[in-house]
Design brief:
Elements lengths: L1 E4 L13 E4 L3 E2 L2 E2 L7 E2 L10 H7 L21 H4 L6 H9 L9 H4 L5 H5 L6 H14 L5 H13 L12 H5 L14 E6 L2 H5 L1 H16 L4 E3 L9 H5 L3 H17 L2 E6 L2 H10 L9 E3 H6 L2 H4 L10 E5 L13 H8 L4 E4 L21 H5 L6 H11 L4 E4 L2 H13 L7 E4 H7 L4
Helix pairs in contact: 10-20, 18-19
Amino acid sequence: MTERYNLTVNTGREKDQSFVEKESAVIEGIDVSGRWNRMFVPREIQDYDLTNMHKLTAIPGAESMGWCYQCAQCMPACPVDTAGGDYGPRKIFRRLELGMDLLDSRDLWLCTTCANCLRVCPKEVDMIKIMPVARAAAVLEGNVPAELLEMFQNVAEYGNPMGQSARKRAAWIRKSDAEIRVLPKDPGPVDVLWFVGDFYAYHGRGVDAANAMARVFNALDVDFGVLGADERTDGDSQRLAGEPGLYEELAEHNIEQFKQHEHERIVVSGPHAYNAIKNEYPAMGGEFEVEHYTQFLADQIDELKPLLTGSFGNRKVTFHDPCYLGRHNGEYDAPRDLLEAVPDLDLIEMYRCKEQGYCCGGGGGGMWLDGFAAEQQSERLSENRVKEAVMVGADVLAVCCPYEVSRFEDAVKSTNNDGKLEVLDIIEILDQCMGA
């Protein structure tokens, strides 16, 4: 005899679930009558209101959000979840099932587009495509964190996220002790068109790295020039943060400037500029040979080594892989080759490195969302990373992204590691050991 019961029981899994159970059941001589043969009636996915899921996956580029099958491999890979953000593609998918509108949710802005979840996802749920298009839709609806809106306004008005005058972009050049050719004032062919970038041009610690780069270029007799005040931000962060129109304006401007000055290659200071010029600018009619500065210098390692006559003092150095140089563009060796060329430098790896490297928190617009992120997470991603560098016994945290010096120096202070860990751009390390 079979009966259907609709009972509420209090044993966890059984609560509020329907089941089928035989009052009398004997299997191979074993009596399994009663609850021993109970079979629960499945709860169908159709029971959920998927309106907001369909709203998201209907946006071109966001289709893969619907492919998630809740395996959870993304969760330990997500840096935001690791930092206490209660986050990750699996959790976003589940919240969409339960009715969350991503375009009006804090979850839309926490993703740093680091690509670590995509690296492990068997269904290829691609947050690097999903987030920019979803954010663009939210921007059109007026749902933008105040910090990000201020950055958009600064870039639109001044061509840089700091809101600094475009004329001041070349101020560091006038004060530099290196020979730097500014192409709009001194035109003519060059081997290297150096795309300096915002942080190297405007931020105090970035200017330190920019001067170091110019001195290293001079020492190697590199034939290079810069755009000076004619340069604008590369636009990659603005595109990822949901402003494709602003990105297109920036890309068009920079492409026009690149084409005006004859050059063999573009060398960039930062991974985001590298990603934009290499992977995004071609669709706008700008196809150029582009290298990150570590790639360019690693190709000249034989000429560089004899110039590194100073010792680095046997200091232990660990390297932070930038997401947009590493996972996004597959470059892990060039930065390490440069560090290993430095005399008396002890290179050690953090636990999370190369393909599994941890995110600094600055990608995907995160550079301008620190206040917003701090309200959602138990710690900043940069703080988590600094703790790891200290844990492996590093004296120096080496970076090669303009965002990271300031992010990690702040994190060193906020984690009470001031005096224990120094943050240096690789180009600064090379400069310190050159001709000393």
